[in-house]
Amino acid sequence: MEQTRTVSWVYDQLSCVWSRGELLEKVKQDRKKRIERRAVLNSAVNEKGYLQDLVYKLSKVGQAIENNDLEAACLVLGKGIDTGWVKTVNLAFTKLFFFLLFFFNSQWWKVETFNSSLASLITSVNKNDRESSKLAFVSSASAVEKCTSLTGLLGHLKGI
Predict the structure, then answer these.
(1) What is the value of pTM for the model shown?
(2) Where is the Maintenance of Photosystem II under High light 2 C-terminal domain (predicted)?
(3) Of 75, 84, 116, 135, which is least packed with CB atoms within 10 Å of its CB?
(4) Rounded to an integer, what is the distance from CA 12 to the centroid of its chain?
């Protein structure tokens, strides 16, 4: 009986040590991922700038839509999704998400959601459709917030 208890006690202690080892390994892996993510964000100076410009533009567009001045919103956004700043922002998100997808199994569909909502915003503003512009603006702003949150840039950008 005593030997059975001792074996059981030893088994419990070994499984506890094993669990601690697994836990320690998981902590090490999580730390490594955080360090890698931080390194990407620190090296993404240009991307941060492009995304900060996007936040600024969306802020101006939101103010214009709120004031029912779709002409001003149109001037900020441009005539279509093929403008230089839109391509640059898409490239910045794509670059950041590609890394995050590769290393962290991030949610790639968020970039597509952003692209779609921004295209809807530009289209509705250019069509002078106030209601659609309001809805598309909210959708775009929400998509930007989600994308920047997933990339870890939410705290690095002003105005979100």
Answers:
(1) 0.67
(2) 49-160
(3) 84
(4) 43
Residue count of the chain = 160
**The tokens of 126 are what?**
């250019």
Element (H, E) at 97: helix 84-104
Q: Which of 126, 12, 114 is nearest to 78 (CA)?
A: 126
Q: What is the pLDDT of residues 71-125, one digit of tens each?
A: 999 999 988 888 888 888 888 877 777 766 665 555 556 677 888 899 999 999 9
CA separation for the pair 20, 142 (Å, rounded): 40
Q: What amino acid occupies position 140?
A: S
Tell me the percentage of the chain whose pLDDT exceeds 70: 69
Rounded Cα distance between 117 and 40, Å, is: 26
